[in-house]
Write a structure and sequence with these properties.
Blueprint: E1 2-10, H1 13-20, H2 22-35, E2 38-47, H3 57-69, E3 73-76, H4 87-99, E4 103-106, H5 119-135
């Protein structure tokens, strides 16, 4: 059974009301792991913090633990939980994950792959992230 980490971020009450609250994300991650035969080792949290900043305690802990524990997959409800809006910051986070050879499992974006070299995937993922920003 593959070991994975989960990551939950909630920045506003509105997000919680729209299904992105701490409990909803936790439950979705746990259910996803059970359904896909993944062992959820730990969930990292950033509560009340915007995804536009990369200076987040939970995200920092996640990266430090990834470096130590040889876990190669993070499960999130949506990539918007890891990052928002700022393309430069998105690329910084993606680059750090790629250095560690870590994959993202996005429950709501089944085909998301930070390693894809297909320019169409890059465009579609960017558009999905923009749409997500407009709706959450």
């Amino acid at each position: 059974m593959e070991k994975v980490f989960g990551y939950v971020r909630v920045s506003t009450e509105t997000q919680a009301e729209k299904g992105y609250g701490k409990g909803a994300q936790e439950s979705a991650i746990i259910d996803y792991c059970k359904a896909n035969n993944l062992e959820l080792v730990e969930v990292f949290y950033d509560l009340g913090i915007s995804g536009t900043t990369i200076e987040r305690d939970g995200l920092g802990e996640l990266f430090a633990t990834l470096s130590e524990d040889n876990i190669k997959r993070i499960v999130v409800m949506n990539t918007s939980r890891l990052w928002r809006e700022d393309t430069a910051k998105v690329l910084i986070i993606k680059r750090e994950l790629q250095k560690l050879d870590v994959h993202i499992c996005s429950i709501e974006q089944k085909d998301y792959d930070i390693y894809s070299k297909d320019s169409n995937d890059f465009l579609v993922n960017g558009m999905m992230e923009l749409l997500e920003h407009m709706t959450v």
